[in-house]
C-alpha cells in the first residue's frame, strides 16, 4: 500500500519485540522483519530495504556497530535507536554512527510512533528525558574537588572521572547512579576500573590521590 512506512526491528528480548511490533502495527506501520542480533538485522535490512531500522543498543553484536554499518550501506534508510540506556555516551555514539533518533523503551507508547513519524519527516527525534539529562549536565554549576587535568585523572575515561567526582562530593553509589542515569552495578564497575587504573585499594584512596594532584 502506498504511503506505508516499512520497518525492520531488532531486539534480543522476544516479549519486547512482540510489544514493539504491536505498537507499530497499531500505529499504522508495517514491520517487514524482526531480528535478535546485529548480524541478522543488517542482513534483513539489506534484503528488505525498509524506511526505518529500529535498533536496540545493547544486543548481541552491538546495536551501535549495526547502526554504523546500516548508515553506510543504506543511506536512504533512517536508523533509530530504541533502548533503556540514558547514558550520554550511548547517545553520542549512536548519533556519530548515523542514528537520527534515540527513543527510550519506557517512554509513553505513542512516543515511539510519533518519533518515527518525525524522522520520516526529516527531523531528529530524541526522548525528552535524555535531552533534559544532558541539559542538566551542561547547566550544572562547576564544583570540582580535583583537577580533570591531573596525572591521575588523565588515566580515567570521562565517565570514570564523572563517577569519582560525584563520589568525592559525598554522594552514595545509588545517588551517583540516579544522577548519571546508570545502574548501581554500572557505577560499581566504573569504580573497580578506577581502583585498578590508579593501583589503590579503595574509593577513598582513589579520591585522595585525585585530590593531591
TrEMBL record:
Pfam name, any one: GerE
Keywords noted in UniProt: DNA-binding, Phosphoprotein, Transcription, Transcription regulation
Q: Which residues form the HTH luxR-type domain?
A: 149-213
Name all Response regulatory domain ranges: 6-120
Q: Which GO terms describe its molecular function?
A: DNA binding
Residues with 4-aspartylphosphate modification: 56
> What InterPro entries does the record tag this protein with?
CheY-like_superfamily, NreC/VraR/RcsB-like_REC, Sig_transdc_resp-reg_C-effctor, Sig_transdc_resp-reg_receiver, Tscrpt_reg_LuxR_C, WalR-like
Which GO terms of type biological process are on file?
A: phosphorelay signal transduction system; regulation of DNA-templated transcription
- Report if keyword Membrane is assigned: no
Protein name per Swiss-Prot or TrEMBL: Response regulator transcription factor
Q: What is the scientific name of the source organism? A: Kribbella sp. HUAS MG21
Q: What is the lineage of its organism?
A: Bacteria, Bacillati, Actinomycetota, Actinomycetes, Propionibacteriales
Amino acid at each position: 500500500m502506498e504511503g506505508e512506512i516499512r520497518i525492520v526491528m531488532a531486539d534480543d528480548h522476544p516479549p519486547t519485540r512482540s510489544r514493539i511490533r504491536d505498537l507499530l502495527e497499531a500505529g499504522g506501520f508495517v514491520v517487514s522483519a524482526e531480528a535478535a542480533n546485529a548480524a541478522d538485522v543488517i542482513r534483513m535490512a539489506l534484503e528488505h530495504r525498509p524506511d526505518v531500522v529500529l535498533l536496540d543498543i545493547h544486543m548481541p553484536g552491538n546495536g551501535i556497530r549495526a547502526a554504523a554499518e546500516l548508515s553506510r550501506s543504506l543511506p536512504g534508510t533512517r536508523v533509530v535507536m530504541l533502548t533503556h540506556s540514558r547514558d550520554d555516551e550511548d547517545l553520542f555514539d549512536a548519533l556519530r554512527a548515523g542514528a537520527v533518533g534515540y527513543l527510550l523503551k519506557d517512554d509513553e507508547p505513542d512516543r515511539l510512533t510519533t518519533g518515527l513519524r518525525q524522522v520520516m519527516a526529516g527531523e531528529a527525534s530524541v526522548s525528552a528525558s535524555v535531552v533534559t539529562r544532558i541539559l542538566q549536565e551542561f547547566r550544572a554549576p562547576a564544583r570540582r574537588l580535583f583537577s580533570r587535568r591531573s596525572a591521575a585523572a588523565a588515566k580515567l575515561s570521562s565517565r570514570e572521572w564523572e563517577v569519582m567526582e560525584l563520589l568525592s562530593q559525598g554522594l552514595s553509589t545509588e545517588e551517583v547512579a540516579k544522577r548519571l542515569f546508570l545502574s548501581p552495578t554500572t557505577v560499581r564497575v566504573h569504580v573497580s576500573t578506577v581502583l585498578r587504573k590508579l593501583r589503590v585499594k579503595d574509593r577513598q584512596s582513589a579520591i585522595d590521590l585525585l585530590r593531591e594532584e
